């Protein structure tokens, strides 16, 4: 299995729509909060915002992930601050690649090449997406979880997030 992380200039709307449909079962909490169409367009807007960086993940040449992100300094280290990760299936309709050793190695290599100590993301605990992330990252990284107001001086307070949201900081071992 060949897994590649690549920085890209623009995201393809048709690929994004496929990834969104494949990711939707795991992002149910946000779908309920924002509504499915609002969520789809909010996530797409992050991918088209020129102030964000975009990367994609391919599995055997097939796009499985779009993520927009910013470089973010936390505890004097640079992290990849993920916004709107949209994780889909491989060409066979599977997400098993996400739990593979190849994915873990490719992600760590990508972050090392970008001088990132790890990643930071907002999430709703106990949702399928959060449980999936925790299970995957926990085996090869240290994880810290914060209430939004308690993370880095409340830097995310302006977003108007629900009280259920948390900040996950993943630092590669």
Please identify which CATH superfamily we are dealing with: Gcn5-related N-acetyltransferase (GNAT)
Helix content: 25-40%
| Overall residue-averaged pLDDT value | 86
Instruction: Spell out the helices and strands N to C.
Output: EHHHEEEHEHEE
Q: Tell me the number of helical segments per DSSP (H or I, 4 or more residues long).
A: 5
Strand composition percent: 25-35%
Question: Can you tell me the CATH topology?
Answer: Aminopeptidase
Architecture in CATH? 3-Layer(aba) Sandwich
- From the spread of the alpha carbons, the general shape counts as globular
- Alpha-carbon distance between the two ends: 23 Å
State Rg: 15 Å
Find the count of extended strands (DSSP E, 2+ residues). 7
The spatial strand order of the largest sheet comes to 1-2-3-4-5-7-6
Structural class computed from helices and strand pairing: alpha+beta
CATH hierarchy, class: Alpha Beta
* Number of spatially distinct domains: 1
Low-confidence stretches: none
Most strands sheet: 7 strands, mixed
Short key terms for the protein model shown above:
5 helices; Aminopeptidase; 33% strand; 173 residues; alpha+beta
Description:
This protein has a single domain, classed as Aminopeptidase, CATH 3.40.630.30. It is α+β, with helices and mostly antiparallel strands and 173 residues long. A seven-stranded mixed β-sheet has the order 1-2-3-4-5-7-6. It contains five helices and seven strands. 31% of the residues lie in helices and 33% in strands. The chain is globular.
């Amino acid at each position: 299995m060949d897994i590649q992380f690549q920085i890209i200039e623009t995201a393809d709307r048709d690929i994004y729509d496929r990834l969104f449909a494949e990711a939707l079962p795991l992002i149910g909490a946000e779908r309920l909060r924002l509504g499915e169409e609002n969520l789809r367009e909010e996530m797409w807007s992050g991918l088209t915002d020129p102030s964000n960086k975009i990367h994609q993940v391919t599995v055997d040449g097939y796009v499985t992930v779009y993520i927009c992100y910013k470089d973010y300094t936390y505890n004097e280290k640079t992290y990849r601050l993920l916004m709107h990760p949209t994780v889909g299936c491989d060409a066979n309709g599977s997400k098993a690649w996400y739990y593979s050793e190849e994915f873990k190695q490719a992600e760590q290599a990508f972050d090392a090449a970008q001088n990132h100590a790890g990643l930071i993301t907002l999430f709703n605990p106990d949702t399928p997406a959060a449980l999936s992330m925790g299970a995957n990252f926990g085996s090869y990284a240290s994880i810290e979880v914060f209430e939004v107001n308690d993370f880095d001086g409340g830097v995310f307070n302006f977003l108007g997030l629900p009280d259920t949201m948390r900040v996950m900081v993943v630092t590669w071992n």
